[in-house]
Design goal:
Elements lengths: L6 E14 L2 E14 L3 E5 L6 H8 L7 E6 L4 H6 L3 E4 L11 H12 L3 H14 L15 H13 L5 E5 L7 H18 L2 E6 L2 H7 L2 E5 L6 E6 L14 H20 L1
Parallel strand pairs: 3-7, 3-8, 5-6, 6-7
Antiparallel strand pairs: 1-2, 1-4, 8-9
Helix pairs in contact: 3-4, 3-5, 4-5, 7-8
C-alpha cells in the first residue's frame, strides 16, 4: 500500500485473531486501507464482519495480531496518548447525574484543562451541535437524538483531528436519523475532521461518505472501496438522484459478492 503524505490512517495486511473457548475467530483478515485527511469514510457490512473491530484497532481498544496500522503517523497507542481522536459509541454513554455541559467537560477535566478553558470549549461545541441552550439540562431531559449530539460534542471537545463513530444513529427512528445525517454533514464541512463511521444502512453510508468501505462476513475483509462522486453539498433529496442510486447499487453488489466469497 502506497503511503500518502495526507494519510491519517494507514493499514497494511492487518489481521486480528481472537482466541475463544470454541477456537480461533479471524475478525480481520489482510485489511489494506488508507484514509486521507478530511475524508468521511463509512464502513458497511453484515454483523460480525469486523467494522467495529477495525474502528477499535484504530482507537487502540483492540490489538492486531498481524500486519501494521498507523494513525497520524503514530502507532494507535501513541495516537491515543496524543488525544488524536474522539470516539462516539452506539449509545450516548452520558452520565445521568451530570448535566450535558458536565458530561462534555469530563474529558477536559481528565486532561487537566483549566476551568476557564473547559467552559470555553463546552460552549463552542454545544453551539457546533446546536445544543447551546441545553448545557444545564440532564440527559434524561433530552431526546435520544439530542443525547447523541451531546455525545458528539463531548468527542469534539478536545479538538481531535479524527472522529470515530460506531453506528451512532442506529437506534434512532428514520426521521431523526435523517436530520442528524444532515447535521453531521454540516458539522464535518465546518470542522474538516477526518471521520470513520460504522453503519448498517446503505442510504446512510452513501449519503454521508466520500469513501465507502464494503466489508465481507467473517473473516472480515474489504470487499470493495467505493469513492463517492457525489458533490460535497448534499440535500436529502439527492438520495433520489440517478448518481446516488448507482452508488447504492454498487454497495449492494459488494455486500452480495462478499457473502458469496466466504
Amino acid at each position: 500500500m502506497e503511503q500518502n503524505s495526507q494519510a491519517v490512517i494507514a493499514a497494511k495486511n492487518l489481521n486480528l485473531v481472537f482466541e475463544t473457548n470454541d477456537g480461533s475467530v479471524h475478525a480481520l483478515k489482510d485489511v489494506d486501507l488508507t484514509i486521507n485527511k478530511g475524508e468521511f469514510v463509512s464502513f458497511i457490512g453484515p454483523s460480525g464482519c469486523g467494522k467495529t473491530t477495525f474502528l477499535r484497532v484504530i482507537a487502540d481498544l483492540e490489538q492486531p495480531t498481524g500486519g501494521s496500522i498507523s494513525v497520524n503517523g503514530m502507532t494507535p497507542h501513541e495516537a491515543r496518548e496524543a488525544r488524536a481522536y474522539g470516539y462516539v459509541f452506539q449509545a450516548s454513554g452520558l452520565y445521568p447525574w451530570r448535566t450535558i455541559a458536565g458530561n462534555i467537560k469530563l474529558p477536559l477535566e481528565i486532561m487537566g484543562y483549566s476551568k476557564e478553558e473547559q467552559d470555553k470549549r463546552v460552549q463552542q461545541v454545544l453551539e457546533l451541535v446546536e445544543l447551546d441552550s441545553f448545557g444545564n439540562k440532564y440527559p434524561w431531559q433530552l431526546s435520544g437524538g439530542m443525547q447523541q449530539r451531546a455525545s458528539i460534542a463531548r468527542a469534539l471537545s478536545f479538538d481531535a483531528d479524527i472522529l470515530l463513530m460506531d453506528e451512532p444513529f442506529g437506534a434512532l427512528d428514520e426521521i431523526v436519523r435523517d436530520h442528524l445525517n444532515e447535521q453531521l454533514l454540516a458539522l464535518w464541512a465546518r470542522t474538516e475532521k477526518t471521520i470513520g463511521f460504522v453503519t448498517h444502512s446503505i442510504p446512510e453510508a452513501v449519503y454521508l461518505s466520500t469513501k465507502i468501505v464494503v466489508m465481507s462476513p467473517r473473516p472480515g475483509r474489504i470487499a470493495d472501496v467505493i469513492e463517492s462522486t457525489l458533490p460535497k453539498e448534499r440535500p436529502l433529496d439527492i438520495r433520489d438522484s440517478k448518481e446516488f442510486l448507482e452508488i447504492a447499487a454498487r454497495v449492494r453488489d459488494g455486500l452480495r459478492a462478499g457473502h458469496l466469497d466466504v
